[in-house]
Structure formats: C-alpha cells, structure tokens
C-alpha cells in the first residue's frame, strides 16, 4: 500500500529534537524523503540514527549565509521541495524592563526572520508545481502568557502565515501554521521544569490544560501531516491550535 507522502521532499528546520524530530519521524514513516537541519552535528547524528535514512544539515538559522547554503544543498540533493516545516525557534528573555533590545532582536532572528527567509526560498521552488509551508508558532503568539520577546516573534509568524498564505495560494502554495500549547518531550523546557519542581508543574497542568496533561510531539506531528495533506486543501493562511484546550481564546 502506498503511503500518504511517498516520495515527497520535506525540509524541517530544527528537526533534530523535540517537536521537529517528531515531525520528521512522522513524514518519514509516511514515505517522505526528509531533510532536517539544526546547529549541533551530534544532535543531527543522533536523530538520523533514530529516524532512518534522512539527510542532515548543520546550520544556524540565524545566519543568512548558512540558510542560503543549506537550502541550496537540500535542493541539489532532493531536486526540489514539496513541504517546508519552519519549526526552529526558542524562547529567551524575561520581563520587558529587564530585557535588552539585543534580546528582542535575537528572538525575532531566531523565531521569525529566518522562517520568512526559508519560506521565500521555498516559494521560489514551489511556485511552478505547488507545495506546502507549515510554520510552528505557539498559543503565545495569539494570547498573553509567555515572554514578550517570544510572543512578539510568534505573533509576527502567525501574521506572516496569513499574508503569505493569501499571496501564494494562486500558485498552489499553501501556507499554514500550528500553534501548540505546552508540549512535553525529553529535551524540552517543560521536562526541565518538571525535574525542578514536579508539584508546581502538576498544579500548572491542572489549572491550565483542560485535557489534564501535557501534549506530546506526535500530536503536533499529526497536525503537520494533516496541514500538508490534500485533505487540508482549503486551509490557507490559517493557524491550527493544538493544545488540549489550553488557550483561552473564544474566537
Ligand atoms: P527544542 O529546543 O527541543 O528543539 C529545537 C530544535 O531547533 C532543535 O533541533 C535545535 O537544535 C533547533 N534549533 C534551535 N535553534 C536553532 C538555530 N538557531 N539554528 C538551527 N536550529 C536551531 O524545541 P521544541 O521542540 O520544544 O520546539 C520546537 C518549536 O515549537 C519551536 O519553534 C518552539 O517555539 C515551538 N513550540 C514549542 C512548544 C513546547 O511546549 N515545546 C510550545 C509551542 C511552540 P540545535 O540546538 O542543535 O540547533
């Protein structure tokens, strides 16, 4: 039986750990040809050992030349791109008054500008035959709760998703995003916080996540498979919330 993404060419930024690795695994299991990028060679090697026959690229997404070079290498190896998942990102900073302008800029570089650049490069390839771009944002791009640096950058990425979605759909390129709630995985922030203070984290879950537990990477990966699929063909510029009910938005 043929698999849902047989032969599709998929690039996942930040694919060596956590959510990105889960997404890489999911596409690979569905028959896709997968490339992942991250900074640490060691992390890439471990991910490849775990997932299987994938391509890996050492790349810091905040460096313009490394983005261009890596994307070019991916295209040369794969002969094109069908699906781009902009997953790389991370949270930094603290209270606004205590956070330097450099930190605000760095957050935009890490979470936003690089995803815009990868999307633009992917669009140039996809505009002839269509494709899908999936941005991993956050519920904290939609509502208050996280650090301002992170919220700002994720809100910008949600806004970019809508703008690029509307602009590129005429060429068959669908751009959408997933806004995860709190996702637990071994190398992530929530795991660290559970180790530091398990009781506080139990209370956090009880008070904040109606489903009564953290989400897992497979649950975000399933949303990514859906957004990349034909079944989501009418979803354009939208942001899917995947959070066990955690976010507080009514509309
Ligand atoms: P992790 O920190 O566990 O993994 C991040 C991945 O991105 C790693 O592969 C890391 O590898 C890579 N990465 C980080 N910075 C860079 C960089 N500058 N250049 C290239 N690669 C980079 O994060 P999560 O899996 O938890 O999160 C993934 C995405 O999901 C992020 O965008 C995050 O904001 C978002 N998200 C996460 C939530 C959660 O609860 N976990 C909730 C909502 C959104 P390396 O360090 O080797 O570069």
Summarize the structure.
This protein is an alpha/beta fold and 251 residues long. The protein is 46% helix and 15% strand.
**Large-scale geometry:** globular
CATH topology: Rossmann fold
Strand order of the largest sheet: 3-2-1-4-5-6-7
- Portion in beta strands: 5-15%
Summed up, the helix count is: 8
Distance between the termini: 40 Å
Instruction: Report Rg.
Output: 17 Å
CATH architecture: 3-Layer(aba) Sandwich
**Average residue-wise pLDDT:** 97
Percent helix range: 40-55%
CATH class: Alpha Beta
The biggest beta sheet, please?
A: 7 strands, parallel
- Could you give the order of the helices and strands? EHEHEHEHEHEHHHE
Number of domains: 1
Which oligomerization state do the chains in this entry correspond to? single chain
How would you name the CATH homologous superfamily? Answer: NAD(P)-binding Rossmann-like Domain
Number of strands: 7
Heteromolecules bound? NADPH dihydro-nicotinamide-adenine-dinucleotide phosphate
Structural class: alpha/beta
Low-confidence stretches: none
What characteristics describe this protein?
single chain, 251 residues, alpha/beta, Rossmann fold, 7-stranded parallel beta sheet, binds NADPH dihydro-nicotinamide-adenine-dinucleotide phosphate
